[in-house]
Amino acid sequence: MADCMDKERVDRRSNRNLQRKKEKEREKDLGAMEASVHDFFLRSLLQTLAPHQSVFQGNSIL
């Protein structure tokens, strides 16, 4: 009887650990996607602004 209860506890603990690991991986993937989107929008903005002259320096922004 005690062995059965111990096995259930171990199973629950390993399931929780596996779930936490999956959540951390999802968070890491989400962070990478957010960084990628941020980078894409920054590059797009810089490309849009590139042809314009800087008001202060008279030089191209890029």
Automatic annotation (TrEMBL):
Disordered: annotated span: 1-30
Protein name in the entry: Uncharacterized protein
